Amino acid sequence: MGKRLTEDQQRFYATNGYILGMPPVFAPQQVSELNEGTDELMKLLRPGEDSKEIREWHESSRFLYDVCTNPVILDYIEDILGPDFYLWGSNFFIKPPRSNSTVGWHQDTYYWPLDPKISATVWLALEDVDEQNAAMRVIPGSHKVGLLKHSRSSSTDSVLTLECEGGQYREDLAVSLNVKAGAFSIHDDKLVHGSPANNSERRRAGLTIRYSSTIVKCDLSVNPYFKTYLCRGVDTYKHNPVGVVPTQKFGRLERKHISVEEAGVEAEKKLGLVK
Ligand SMILES: O=C(O)CCC(=O)C(=O)O
Question: Ligand 1 pocket test: which of 99, 208, 212 has the largest number of ligand atoms within 8 Å of its C-beta?
């Protein structure tokens, strides 16, 4: 038994690469506050920007930093990543009602210049999310097949442009990660996942929070802005720059973090993802 996950749940995660069904970490009143806080962050967006631009703002907004370091969430991550891990990423995936926006099948690890591949993502629901309003879908066990070939998507509706090439995974096995407001799922960085368009009249919104074991090192030549926030344990490796905890409640982050998607094909080559 871990701090929060039973042995069966830990085994399920190891086998399938995801876990859900944990009790909500935020009660209804707190979910309202989460949504109000998210609205405050949205007010900081400039004309032409949308919620996708709110990326790594836990570095500039104490409100978001506190959500990302919620002790109950950290207990779950400790059960998965072990005693020493840091927070480094956060971003929103919001699909308004009747939105064509999709997320193509991908492995997070393809996007991240991180090594070794020992990271996990919390997908925290800001409202009830299910098949009707485009919950995230995952291919159970696909985290074990290794790094898959990705190519740049020509679909204009996909929020992410690097997508797994077809034929490498069993789409027919996909499972919908239905999550109640204030609850969350967790997925492995190598798991194949994506999400369809939101054809419902309900909004669909989630906050993703990314954590890595302290042994994980970022290639700063790809993302020079990478910052870590030790959540639990000790960082004996000291591989990465350490971030400063924000003091203002709501603030923009002017630095743009860079994933392999933005860094382009040169970074893909450098990281050995393509020849
Ligand atoms: O929310 C989604 O549709 C996709 C989220 C995602 O790709 C991720 O959490 O890595």
Answer: 208
* pLDDT (tens digit per residue) in 77-101: 999 999 999 999 999 999 999 999 9
The two tokens of residue 175 are 């499972």
Write b or e for each residue in 23-61: b if 16 or more Cβ atoms lie within 10 A of its Cβ, otherwise e: ebbbeeeebeebeebbeebeebeeeeeebebbbbbbbbb
pLDDT at 20: 97
Residue 156 has pLDDT above 80, yes or no: no
| For the chain, domain boundaries | 7-270
Q: Residue 159 region, left (φ>0) first, then alpha (ψ -120 to 50), else beta?
A: alpha
Q: Which residues of 256-271 are buried (b: 16+ CB within 10 A; e: fewer)?
A: ebbbbbebeeebbeeb
CB atoms within 10 A of CB 76: 24
**How much distance in Å is there from the Cα of 138 to the middle of ligand 1?**
10
What CATH number should be reported for the domain whose range is 7-270? Answer: 2.60.120.620
Confidence of residue 158 (pLDDT cuts 50, 70, 90): confident
Per the confidence metrics, is the pTM higher than 0.85? yes
Ligand 1 pocket residue status of 104, Cβ below 6 Å: no
Q: What is the pLDDT of residues 217-239, one digit of tens each?
A: 999 999 999 999 999 999 999 99
